[in-house]
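Q: My labmate handed me this sequence with no annotations at all. I'd like to see what the chain might look like in three dimensions before we decide whether it's worth expressing. Could you predict it?
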Amino acid sequence: MHHSLAKLTLGLVAAATTATTGAWAYPSPAPEPSPEPQAAQQESPYKDQGEYDLATAAGKETDAQKKLDKLKEWEQKYPDSKLKSTRTVMQAQAYLGLAMAAYGKTTPPELLDSGQKAAQTIVDNLDNYFSPSAKPAGATDEQWAAARHTFELQAHSVLGWVAMARKEAPKAEEEFKKVLALDPNAAQVSYWLGSVIISQKNVARYSEALYDIARSLVVTGAEALPPAAAGPYGDYLKRAYVGYHGDDSGLEDLKKLAAGSALPPAGFHVDSVAELETKKFGDIEAFNKAHPDVALWRQIRDTLKSDQGDTYFGTVKGSQIPPPEVGFFKAKVVTVNDKDLVVNVDNAGGDATLKFEKAVNAKAINPGDALEFKAVVDSFVKEPYMLTLTIDDPKESIKGLPDNAFSAAPSTKKAGPKKVAPKTVKKK
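A: Here is what I predict for the chain of 428 residues:
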């Protein structure tokens, strides 16, 4: 999916460059002096035929990398050319061509590499490329500033896109925020920003992510989301909001707030289900008593993430949790994969992966669907936290899924005896 910037053309700079390189022809030899005064001959901007040939070849080259190569050759052979400023503008254009070639692509890796390097080169050299001395003769100061703004905007857009494609979420977030500082109405970028924040699975930042996604839906005008994207993005926002907040109360107010600025105001926060429940019960002890499954889940999570985590995991691996006195964990579906479900027990981004022997019917299960489960501990990752569990018999171990949740009948093999999970070890 391409941001609308990918369709922009830099008519001002392109026209100025074409005029500069194409207006002159290499002059014919001057005639022999005559006794009569002659009008001054127009001075050629080229040192010799060799420079003219190099400049002409660079101007006609359509491949961005080959154009850069020719421009570098020109620069090496004629460093003090009278057309140095024009050459600088042409280099900036060529780098932008390389950068934009990677925009919207996810492969091949070398294309992303060249796009990232070219975009970074533009960012690092903006003052040089758009210095007053490089400004084409026919351009006003306002036009030259607008051209710089466009180059900067596109370069950061490419850097953000490439980082997102490489799953480098913090870098993508940094670049997308720079884009929005330059263009607050970049609706698609607002959506991407919210998505990469969610991908970092830091529930404390979900309020910010929900704001960014809401912002993408309320931008109007030329940069608004196309209808084909607005529908699915709106559905996703509602699922994410309800999964985090518990219901859709306050969602419309969030959209109205997001219409006012590209980024959330200082102190902006949406209460999570856990925060609302804690407020409701007044203190953590009352909450834990009312929600023993969540209390146990948090205790297991905190112990696994502690310095004692690996030792503790050795005692719980292969155990079925929760124990009978707790019954089942309550959760909501986050993503549906081939043979597993990522679910939210206590983190809207997902904190449990449920593995099945048979394939999951993705058409029957949707993100946001509620379920209850008990399962056997298989593995875990500390950061971002994820506990993976196996389920041998969904009919016995899961409640809430539709009858056609699996594309094949569950396994009929008899499972071995399950260990009973020991009590968690309190952190020192």
